[in-house]
Amino acid sequence: MTKRILAICLIIGFTFTQTVLADDIYPDTIAKFKQANDTHKFFDNAYGYAIFPTVGKGGFGIGAAYGKGKVFRDQDHTGNTSLTQLSLGFQIGGQAYSEIIFFKNAAAYEAFTSGSFEFNAQASAVAINIGANAQAGTTGNSSGAGDKMAKASYINGMAVYTMAKGGLMFEAALAGQSFTFEEN
């Protein structure tokens, strides 16, 4: 039974990642993040960043998320990365979002590109949505109307932003994200 539920979760999650296979989606996703007031300063000053155009997430008790991305230092593509997440707790549904991780300095970049990197369940991201604000973490999302956007700063040399693409998911789950990196 558990294997069947996990398989369903993975299918839901991977369904949302189909557009990640196209290379032309990267410039569009980067442009969308550059439009947000909070992120353009990171593009100007960050040592580098990892961009995931589409992360698909699905769950029914047990949840999973997956996305493929690219890592940049300055403006040079230095390698490819993948994001995986497994979560346990109350959750049902599926969603897709884009994610960007900015690296403040060489130490943060090296930590991420060391081959296998993880954010723990307490790591959080600021969710951006043009015209509204939202706060998100690896444990769930919430949003509200208003004219002020939640601001992120570097934590351990990294700043994480997400942008919703679609779907609906209710969750109160414990999860962390794991990343792999392959140099070009």
Structural class: alpha+beta
Global shape: globular
Tell me the total number of β-strands.
7
Strand content: over 45%
Low-confidence stretches: 16-21, 131-150
Approximately how much helix is present in the residues?
10-25%
Describe the main β-sheet briefly. Answer: 7 strands, mixed
Number of structural domains: 1
- Spatial gap, N to C terminus: 40 Å
Radius of gyration based on Cα positions:
15 Å
Q: What is the H/E order?
A: HHHEEHEEEEE
List key phrases describing it.
184 residues; 7 strands; 7-stranded mixed beta sheet; globular; 4 helices; alpha+beta
Structure description:
The chain is α+β, with helices and mostly antiparallel strands and 184 residues long. The protein has one domain (2-183). Helices cover 21% and strands 55% of the residues. The protein is built from 4 helices and 7 strands, in the order αααββαβββββ. The chain has helices spanning 2-15, 25-35, 40-45, 106-112; strands at residues 48-73, 76-103, 116-119, 124-129, 132-137, 140-144, 158-183. Strands 1, 2, 3, 4, 5, 6 and 7 form a 7-stranded mixed beta sheet that branches. A hairpin with a 2-residue loop joins strand 5 (132-137) and strand 6 (140-144). The longest helix is centred in the N-terminal third of the chain and has 14 residues, at 2-15. The protein starts with a helix and ends with a strand. 38% of the residues are buried. The model is unreliable at 16-21 and 131-150 (pLDDT under 50).
